Amino acid sequence: MFNLIFRWQEEVAKQAIKHALKALKKRHLVEEGAHAPAYIALSRPIISQGSEWKGKAEKLEVELQQCYKAQSRLSEQLVVEVAESRTLKAFLQEKETAMAELEKELTQTRDEYSQLKTDFEEKVRALELLLSEYKELKAQLEQLTIRATNAEAENKRLANALYEDMTERLKASGLEKLAQEQVDGIVRRSEEGAEFFAESTVPSVCKDRINAHDGGCASIMFDTGSLGHSLFGCLGSVLDLAITHDNRSIIAGSSSNNLFVWDVNLGHVHHTLTGHTEKVCAVDVSKVSSRHVVSSAYGRTIKVWDLQKGYCTNTIIFHSNCNALCFSTDGLTICSGHVDGNLRLWDIQTGKLLSEVSAHSLAITSLSLSLRSFISPDDNNIAAGSAHGSIYIWSISKADMVSTLKEHTAPILCCTWSAIGKPLAYADKNGVVCTWT
After folding, report:
1. Which of these CATH numbers, 2.130.10.10, 2.60.40.3360, 3.40.50.2300, 3.40.50.12780, describes 238-436?
2. Of 98, 160, 400, 428, which alpha carbon lies 20 to 30 A from 302's?
3. What's the pTM value of the predicted model, to 2 decimals?
4. What is residue 88's predicted lDDT score, i.e. its pLDDT?
5. How far apart are CA 427 and CA 411, in angstroms?
6. Helix, strand, coil fractions of the chain, as percent rounded to 5
């Protein structure tokens, strides 16, 4: 029963559905008929404008292709311009770096210019100062030249007066010839016509006082009594002098560490002996040969020189400075006096020490043979100077002091006795030379 009812309901439903579908179809047909005129009206313009739109589309496509081509060219140009821009940027950076370096160099150049300008101004001021000093020194030199000329004339006048006085005394005493000068204990010819000497007397009166030099005088000798030459060319102070036995050359030891050799006849330096590193304090010439010279310096060195060759032939180095030295009479050995108070004898050829004597407790400053502390021509007396300006005379036979002469205020540097027995002459550190009779 139930199944019959279900089937009936199912059939009724199907019929209702069919009826609804028919109604919808009919309604659709009615609506389609109502819209047909509109569809027809709309379709007519589209068909008529299709060809026009197609032409426009083709034209737009052509323009689009041209735009693509233009875009491609612009892209290529953009790539080139980007590459050029990068190149220009690198170039610009390089130029900026170069400009920075140039600015740095310009700053350095300006600094250097400023420094050079400062240095130049300092040099100009220094030059002006030197010119001022030069003018002042030139004026002083002119004054000194005038003083030297006057002093030279005065010295010549005094020397000539001394020589004339000595000549008159010798003529009055009946002496026919003058004494020979002392060389290594031997009396040699000092002035023309001399053959023997008068007995020396102990001097007591200062006869002449000569302002001979602007600086100290470290060595003096008697000659004819007249000024023969003024020798120039020595650099530094003259600390010792020696004359070759042929009287052709004068050798000076100087504070400039050199020895200067003058030709007496020509009046100029013809040798400069270099090799010492300190002041040359003593010099002597061989009495056998005029070519050999010996010198000592504060650098604890003794040197032997050959004047003909013009150079040092032997160097002796010792631990104690040598203050004084001289050749032996045979010219084969050298006697030296040292700061330690010892006397030493050296072989001139080998430079070996032959003998040593502990002579004094203090430094030796002069030696006997050709003495600064001088022996009188008759070998009776010895004269020596002191640091406080006095001259002391000892009797050799009495071994005692017999006189003290006081005229100087400066230390005495050297003294010598005339070969005829008088006068006695000595010089001090201020360049003053005095003669005593």
Report:
1. 2.130.10.10
2. 428
3. 0.41
4. 86
5. 9
6. 40, 25, 35
